[in-house]
From TrEMBL:
Transmembrane segments: none annotated. Residues 4-149 form the FAD/NAD(P)-binding domain. The keyword Endoplasmic reticulum does not apply. Keywords: Flavoprotein, Oxidoreductase. InterPro entries: FAD/NAD-bd_sf (IPR036188), FAD/NAD-binding_dom (IPR023753), Ferredoxin-NADP_redctase_2 (IPR050097). GO terms for molecular function: oxidoreductase activity. This is Thioredoxin reductase. It comes from the Bacteria. Its cofactor is FAD.
């Protein structure tokens, strides 16, 4: 059975960037990709120098092609279903959905996060006319009549104030959540209307939002907007590998990708279970890979 220097679990920008750095460092590495990248529903990616407006799948295809230039790098189109520590040999055993077992010295967790929305209908519009990141998609929605859909006071205030930079034509939908009077007054002073009714349905065509129907019967015209989802890690690998967490649920690291569990590293959105940008996640991957390579170097020199 082959032994790898490092196995990268997750082929988002963090995992891809880390694998490239490790390949260039002549490390034997395989990256697992099961095609569940969170940005796969997005039509364009923004904020990454030289790749402005690129489709996420094209970005990924380019990265995969670059990885194939390095003979010590391999790509596994499988899902990791189990990770175990072989304490006797100080190695890790990884089992895939194809019932294969891989042995590795180091593991980089870059499996990212996934969204949960307050309304199931949001999925139909997410990535086309409803988004979660104004820095990523605010420019494309500038000056349009937009909706802010959120259910938590802190999230509502933060997102509304932020999006106001791109469009002054905003309406807040709290889906049954009551806002403090001061918040409502602050919004109304900026001519931002607030609907606290439960949302009955979203209407539109081919992912393009046209209106929001409320339980009260009102149907409010909107052509796009921003939502505040909750995020979760799609697996329990960090827990199973005894990584320590902070009080907010973030995985504790040294700031350079090393977790508190020896041999386990983290990069990208997985660390804090919070959304990030393409360019920041890629930088995280590069940083974690540098730590992995240095640790392997010191172990073997």
């Amino acid at each position: 059975m082959e032994k790898y220097d490092c196995i990268v679990i997750g082929a988002g920008p963090a995992g891809l960037s880390a694998t490239l750095t490790l390949g260039r460092a002549r490390r034997k590495v395989t990256i697992f990709d099961n095609g569940t990248n969170r940005n796969r529903v997005t039509q364009e990616s923004h904020g990454f120098l030289t790749r402005e407006g690129i489709k996420p799948q094209e970005f990924k295809n380019i990265a995969m092609k670059e990885l194939k230039s390095y003979p010590s790098v391999s790509i596994s189109n499988e899902t990791v279903i189990e990770v175990n520590k072989d304490d006797q040999n100080d190695l890790f055993l990884i089992k895939s959905s194809n019932n294969k077992t891989y042995i590795t010295e180091k593991i980089l967790l870059a499996t990212g996060i996934q969204e949960e929305f307050p309304l199931t209908q949001i999925r139909q519009y997410y990535g086309k006319s409803l988004f979660s990141c104004p820095y990523c998609d605010g420019w494309e929605l500038r000056d349009k009549p937009l909706a802010i859909i959120a259910e938590n006071d802190e999230h509502i205030i933060h997102m509304t104030k932020l999006v106001f930079n791109w469009s002054k034509d905003l309406i807040v939908f709290t889906n049954g959540h009551q806002l403090f009077n001061k918040v409502r007054n602050d919004f109304e002073s900026k001519k931002i209307k607030v609907y606290t009714d439960v949302i009955e349905d979203l209407h539109g065509d081919n992912g393009n939002l046209e209106s929001i129907e409320l339980e009260s019967g009102d149907n409010i015209l909107r052509s796009g907007g921003f939502v505040v989802p909750s995020f979760y890690r799609p697996n329990k690998f960090a827990e199973q590998l005894n990584c320590q967490f902070d009080k907010n649920g973030g995985i504790i690291t040294d700031g350079a990708g090393r977790t508190t569990a020896n041999g386990i590293y983290i990069a990208g959105e997985t660390e804090k279970a919070e959304s990030s940008s393409l360019i920041i996640a890629s930088a995280d991957g590069n940083k974690a890979a540098s730590s992995i390579n240095m640790d392997i170097t010191l172990d073997r020199f």
